[in-house]
Automatic annotation (TrEMBL):
This is DNA-directed RNA polymerase III subunit RPC8. GO terms for biological process: defense response to virus; innate immune response; transcription initiation at RNA polymerase III promoter. The keyword Chaperone does not apply. Its main location: nucleus. Residues 84-212 form the RNA polymerase III subunit Rpc25 domain. Residues 8-64 form the RNA polymerase Rpb7-like N-terminal domain. It comes from Glossina austeni (Savannah tsetse fly). Residues 221-246 have a biased composition (Acidic residues). DNA-dependent RNA polymerase catalyzes the transcription of DNA into RNA using the four ribonucleoside triphosphates as substrates. Specific peripheric component of RNA polymerase III (Pol III) which synthesizes small non-coding RNAs including 5S rRNA, snRNAs, tRNAs and miRNAs from at least 500 distinct genomic loci. With CRCP/RPC9 forms a mobile stalk that protrudes from Pol III core and functions primarily in transcription initiation. Pol III plays a key role in sensing and limiting infection by intracellular bacteria and DNA viruses. Belongs to the eukaryotic RPB7/RPC8 RNA polymerase subunit family. It comes from the Eukaryota.
Amino acid sequence: MFVLAELKDTVRISPDQFNLKLLEAVRDEINRKLANKVLLNVGLCIALKDVVSLKDSFILPGDGASHTEVVFRYIVFRPPVGNVLTGKIRSCSHEGVHVTLGFFDDILIPPTALQHPSRFDETERAWVWEYPLDDGGKHDLFMDIGEPIKFRVSREIFEESSPIGPPKNEALQPGPSAQGCTSTAQQSNEARTPYKIIAAINESGLGVLSWWDQQQQAEETNNEEEAEENNVDYDNDENGEGAYEE
């Protein structure tokens, strides 16, 4: 789930940090710059592991800060495809089930990756697994908000979220329609997610944990009942002596 990524960057240390040791100032600046940020095709940065090397520092003309090329290793959240993780259901929508790990929320289980058959309950705003029963009926198992859920990572999506320049319709004369187009473009840019995980639960043992707890309890109850039925029966004979009959 967590990996070490070796990265290289030129770290700028402002003059007000010159009282610190260079390594300490570099560590603070790297964490300030990267912690809780997503790097394209790398993952979600968590914390600095260590600094591998520091090169000579230099000062650019017109800038009183020092600049140091640094090679370092950073702890990154990027679970491999196929990994099984446990999170909690954050919400449900027509897009699928949205899951959170507490520190990472952009996990989606699409409808095609849910147990089959499943349906979206508009009243409860939750997905429901129509669990088939032996008698041909079905039992509704709800995916409620806050429930722990086990899922498998099926794929990951990285998307560039940096500014891409003004919209093409910027040349339009100011007016309600032009302002509306600009507002829509801005909302589209703001809604872009830099790193998203697509997951699946359409396998045995995956899904809401309470489902399998209930199933395990039911199986244990059935096993106990079968064991009681298969026990040796004790029957008294005419002489009052006991005889065991299977």
